[in-house]
Amino acid sequence: MYVILMYDLNAKRVGKMLKLCRRYLNWIQNSVFEGEITEVQLRELRYKANDIMEDKDSLIIFKNRSKQWLDKEVIGYEKQDLDIFL
Q: CB atoms < 10 A from the CB of 3, how many?
């Protein structure tokens, strides 16, 4: 499945969440990630994120079957180009 994930955390925990999310998804903007992920990986990510989060923190995940069903438009600088040529 294809997901877009974003979080809003206290500054003390942002570094931990950033490292966690970068293990599973592509970092595209400060607290925003996207990419293909399996259901098992997503469950694992949620479980580990829950250990980092506290009361007023939030994690939002948008899921879609495939990237092909998502139109993406970037205006301005794109933090990380996701096209990889082999």
A: 19
